[in-house]
Amino acid sequence: MIESNESNMSKKILSLVLLVVGAVLLVAALWMDLTKTYLVLNIGINIGLRGLFLVLGALAILAGVYFIPTVLHHRAIINFIFLFPLLFTFAVTVIVPMFVGIFYSFTDWNGVSFSQMVGFSNYATMFKEPGFIWSLLLTVLFVIVNMILVNVVGFLLALLCTTKLKGIGFFRAAYFLPNLIGGIVLGYVWQFVFSNVLTKLTGSAISALANTKTAFMAIIVVYVWQYAGYIMLIYINGLTTVPGDVLEAAQIDGANTLTTLFRIKIPMIAATFTICTFLTLTSAFKQFDVNLALTNGAGSVDFLGNYLSNGTQMIALNIYNTAFARDMYGLAQAKAILFFIILAVVSLIQVRISNSKEVEM
Amino acid sequence: MKMKKSTVAILLIIAIILAIYVLFPFYLVLMNSFKTQSAIVTNPISAAGASFSQFITNLSSVVNNKNFVFWRAFGSSAVVTIISLFLLAVFGGMAAWVICRNKTKWSTAIYMVFISSMIIPFQVVMLPLIATFREVGKFVGLSMNGSIPGLIFAYCGFGGAMTVFILTGFIKGIPYELEEAASIDGCSPEGTFFRIIFPLLKPTIVTVTILNGMWIWNDYLLPSILLGQSSPNKTLPVAVQAFVGSFVKSWDLILTAALLAMIPMIVIFLIAQKQIMSGMVEGAIK
């Protein structure tokens, strides 16, 4: 009893000291902020003393709270301390920017400041911009084509990789390999393939990337090449959950390979199809890296009587360029909000449709 | 099911052709890193003109290039990825455990916010993120934009939702009696987490780390806007982009740079192939 009292006592002192030190550091940081005293500590690199005080002060207070000798509230304190780091970073990087972004989309924001509210004019402007409408339609086309192609190719690869071929482990790894490499690097590699290697192979003088239509198909080829291996892995996982005795029973009943595939395997892995369509849908919508590295959105096209030079630019790249190349941050933000709404609605519909199909099975 | 010999042969041929197609770009990158620019342009496919000494020449001109600063970029990428993965695993585990073991309105609300945030595309928060980081940085007196710690902070924020989502799914399956027993034996809640729950999380932490690691290592957009094109702290994808932009047609240097950027991932894949492939699947189906 005495011992625990003693340790309680020392805990109390430790807690108090930490809380006081933390408070002093925070007040010092605040004082430096208010009086604009910027002291700099130089240890190889310059570290602002104010920031250092603020971080150390906050840590000391957290530690002080941790050592408060209370049995009753200890669990609550731990809960708070455990949640704090992730919630704080999450709030600063996602939640705050999300709401700030919605607000900015109604202003004439230029990336640094805004002078006035402009209502829905950013939203109106983007629909008067043929280049944006084109990007939007192109993205929809890209998503539809990719959703079908990646799933078909991925599923066929999965069927191939679940047969008892020799060296099947190697083939699985090989097909998956492109997924490991980032879109930027892959984009440049394929730029080389299209403009230097394929032209040599086909003997044509013009690269596939020089023509808008073929350049768009090139993006699809690269995307399927990169993504099908990943989708294949998920289908393999689904196919291996189909019980062997069911397949055996089907074989005994005289079902051939195709009947087994369409009547047993595909219905039994309906949930896997839902996951894969969802993944391909959302990732194709957000496609940016390959688009940037392969064509940078270039390509001439006639659209609604307008000459456009962004023939292969998809929506994510359009938003990026609106902000960083054209310096229209408010407009870019409004486009991003619309992009979010479209993505949310489409994925909700997709999940609904797939779920209802799954129940029917 | 047994297959006919002819079917096996046909399938094997198809598998090999597909593998050649899938691996062909990798072959081109490797082969052409051993050639001079003129040899690449005249003959991009065959091994003609490839020599080891040329590879060394290409390698040294890429590594010593002032626009690329390969080792610096590699170091930045490694530091950002490793620290972010460590913090995400620890903080993610802590948060997931609290959310899972407290059936209060608050924990449910936090969980729902995490889950619904997963659908937010990066483009929506991209521009305001720079502004928020600038203001927060000004307020606390630490530079968040353009700095490695700022980037790690952002990765903790963006990776948090998925990490918590996967980990809560796993923690739900750990019997609560385990924690009660520890508590009766006099273990504090934080001790229970770090001594009992966290070690049990290991397989799921591996999955989460693989998913986050592939994303962070290959990510281009977030570091490019947070660090800026002129930053000396560029990560590897940003450095490759900046490098290629400055050498539009120098394929010898571009492809050698691509090779250097690919190698770390491929080496890790060869070492931990099974874990990576199953981790990617588990992350998707949860």
Total count of strands of chain A: 4
Give me the Rg of chain A, rounded.
29 Å
In total, how many domains does the architecture of chain B comprise?
2
CATH-scheme architecture of the largest domain in chain A:
Orthogonal Bundle
Structural class of chain A: mainly alpha
Helix content of chain A: over 70%
Tell me about this structure:
The complex is a heterodimer of chains A (361) and B (286). With 361 residues, chain A is mainly alpha-helical. Chain A has two domains: 2-104, no CATH class; 124-360, MetI-like fold (Orthogonal Bundle). Chain A has helices spanning 2-35, 49-66, 74-104, 121-127, 130-161, 168-176, 183-202, 212-239, 244-252, 257-268, 270-285, 289-294, 315-324, 329-360, and strands at residues 40-43, 45-48, 301-303, 306-308. Chain A contains 14 helices and four strands. In chain A, the strands form two sheets. In chain A, strands 1-2 form a two-stranded antiparallel sheet. In chain A, strands 3-4 form a two-stranded antiparallel ribbon. Chain A is extended. By secondary structure, chain B is mainly α. Chain B has helices at 5-32, 37-42, 52-63, 70-101, 105-117, 122-140, 148-171, 176-184, 189-200, 202-218, 221-227, 236-246, 251-271, 273-285. Chain B has two domains: 5-60, no CATH class; 70-246, Orthogonal Bundle (MetI-like fold). The longest helix of chain B is centred in the N-terminal third of the chain and has 32 residues, at 70-101. Chain B is globular, with a radius of gyration of 24 Å. Chains A and B meet through α1, α2, α3, α6 and α7 of A and α1, α4, α5, α6 and α7 of B.
Keywords:
heterodimer, A: 361 residues, mainly alpha, MetI-like fold, two-stranded antiparallel ribbon, B: 286 residues, 2 domains, 78% helix
Explain the layout of strands and helices:
The complex is a heterodimer of chains A (361) and B (286).
Chain A: H1 2-35, E1 40-43, E2 45-48, H2 49-66, H3 74-104, H4 121-127, H5 130-161, H6 168-176, H7 183-202, H8 212-239, H9 244-252, H10 257-268, H11 270-285, H12 289-294, E3 301-303, E4 306-308, H13 315-324, H14 329-360
Antiparallel strand pairs in A: 1-2, 3-4
Chain B: H1 5-32, H2 37-42, H3 52-63, H4 70-101, H5 105-117, H6 122-140, H7 148-171, H8 176-184, H9 189-200, H10 202-218, H11 221-227, H12 236-246, H13 251-271, H14 273-285
